[in-house]
């Protein structure tokens, strides 16, 4: 496959490329065990590499048995992490054992047993009092089990014999090892940590010196936000993104749509990527099908009905952006509506009373835990922000209303720039 851009492909070729791109965005490490998904990535390797490099600043590595998309996020979030099949994320010890296990897999061979892996981990950590590795402790054995389960999930390890749950009780497991996939998980030398003093340093980028490079980086960061965040608001953007990328948002939206097959909505408050209905690039979706997602949708609709509109000002208030220099004539409209704490509580109580028989047993027996899951879900999809005073409902939540509010039909508001609220 010659190196071309997606724009050069014929319409009948695009669906394959888009499926491969969504696969890499959903699971950045793709192995040959995934069959057709890996074959499509390998087939369109050159086009994908060019597209991801130019449009996002990502790096794509492809080998005989694995492919990895190295993604640099545009912002940090507490909702991004290594997740197990159960939906639980790795603990602090889980991350320690994930890194130590990957380091221990650098030994030759295409198979490894659990006892040998634990011995290597102990030897690697010997002399480092900060790690305090003790593979006989229950918490650390559980963390080791979670780490290898995550590596199984991403295709680095495949169980050949044994039961992974038995690792907690000193059980034995034999794995097949994909050495290419393991190597792709370890892509940087330890010396890179010398310049890292905080989590922010991992995503920091040196500001380009030329105007062209600044503009390219601003567009790449805007595109990264589009595929990383549930919604991209004008207020999220850095000065360079607002000045150099926002005016080109329609073109960038078209580029992302052409590469992924996902539609992008443009609104006055920002942009939102609508995931593909059949093969989404996101691991989680909203609204979902479980009781937590059902309750979140019902509560959100009630909150929107009670949300207070922003205060009317003389024109110098919340409807202008902070910089005063709106690129492309953009006017940043309000992005949240506030619901006081007591009203939000009343909405939650009414929702539970009305729909209790439609929710599951967990919702009835563990109401506090259930509500915590609902709050986490709404926060993860950036539909609401919870404070002591109340709840700020974001503009993107309006698309989930049972009865959407009328669209902005004021003169001079073109169709692609209608407001979310």
Low-confidence spans: 311-333, 407-411, 413-417
Label the overall shape: globular
Helix and strand pattern: HEHHEEHEHHEEHHEHHEEHEHHHEE
Cα Rg: 24 Å
Q: How many helical stretches?
A: 14
Assembly status: single chain
End-to-end CA span: 45 Å
Number of strands: 12
Task: Report what the structure shows.
The protein has 14 helices and twelve strands. A three-stranded antiparallel beta sheet has the order 1-3-2, sandwiched between helices. A three-stranded antiparallel beta sheet has the order 4-6-5. A three-stranded antiparallel beta sheet has the order 7-9-8. The chain is an alpha+beta fold and 421 residues long. Helix 1 crosses helix 2 (36-43) and helix 11 packs across helix 14.
List keywords for this structure.
single chain; 421 residues; alpha+beta; 3-stranded antiparallel sheet; 14 helices
Q: Summed up, what is this model?
A:
This protein is an alpha+beta fold. It has helices at 14-26, 36-43, 45-56, 92-104, 114-125, 138-153, 179-185, 211-228, 239-245, 249-260, 291-306, 341-355, 361-365, 367-380, and strands at residues 29-31, 59-62, 66-70, 111-113, 157-162, 173-177, 232-233, 263-266, 270-274, 336-340, 384-386, 390-394.
């Amino acid at each position: 496959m010659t190196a071309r851009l997606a724009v050069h492909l014929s319409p009948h070729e695009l669906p394959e490329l888009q499926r491969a791109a969504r696969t890499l965005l959903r699971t950045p490490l793709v192995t040959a065990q995934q069959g057709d998904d890996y074959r499509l990535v390998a087939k369109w390797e050159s086009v994908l590499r060019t597209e991801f490099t130019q449009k996002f600043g990502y790096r794509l590595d492809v080998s005989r048995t694995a492919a990895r998309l190295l993604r640099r996020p545009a912002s940090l979030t507490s909702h991004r992490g290594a997740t197990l099949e159960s939906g639980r994320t790795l603990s602090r010890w889980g991350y320690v054992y994930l890194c130590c296990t990957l380091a221990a897999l650098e030994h030759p061979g295409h198979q490894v047993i659990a006892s040998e892996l634990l011995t290597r981990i102990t030897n690697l950590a010997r002399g480092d009092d900060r790690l305090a590795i003790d593979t006989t402790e229950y918490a650390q054995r559980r963390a080791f089990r979670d780490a290898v389960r995550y590596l199984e999930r991403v295709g680095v390890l495949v169980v050949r014999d044994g039961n992974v749950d038995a690792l907690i009780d000193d059980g034995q497991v034999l794995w097949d090892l994909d050495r290419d996939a393991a190597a792709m998980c370890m892509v940087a030398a330890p010396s890179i940590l010398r310049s890292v003093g905080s989590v922010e340093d991992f995503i920091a980028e040196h500001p380009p010196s030329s105007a062209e490079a600044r503009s390219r980086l601003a567009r790449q960061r805007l595109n990264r936000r589009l595929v990383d965040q549930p919604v991209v608001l004008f207020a999220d953007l850095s000065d360079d993104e607002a000045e150099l990328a926002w005016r080109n948002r329609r073109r960038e939206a078209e580029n992302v749509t052409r590469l992924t097959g996902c539609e992008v909505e443009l609104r006055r408050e920002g942009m939102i990527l609508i995931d593909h209905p059949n093969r989404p690039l996101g691991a989680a979706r909203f609204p979902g099908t479980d009781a937590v997602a059902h309750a979140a949708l019902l509560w959100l609709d009630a909150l929107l009905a009670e949300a207070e509109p922003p205060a009317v000002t003389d024109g110098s208030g919340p409807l202008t952006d902070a910089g005063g220099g709106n690129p492309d004539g953009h006017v940043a409209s309000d992005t949240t509506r506030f619901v006081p704490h007591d009203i939000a509580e009343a909405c939650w109580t009414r929702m539970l009373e009305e729909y209790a028989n439609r929710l599951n047993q967990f919702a009835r027996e563990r109401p506090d835990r259930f509500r915590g899951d609902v709050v986490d879900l709404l926060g993860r999809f950036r539909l609401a922000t919870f404070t002591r005073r109340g709840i700020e409902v974001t503009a993107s939540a309006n698309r989930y209303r049972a009865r959407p509010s009328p669209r902005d039909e004021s003169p001079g508001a073109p169709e692609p720039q209608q407001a979310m609220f």
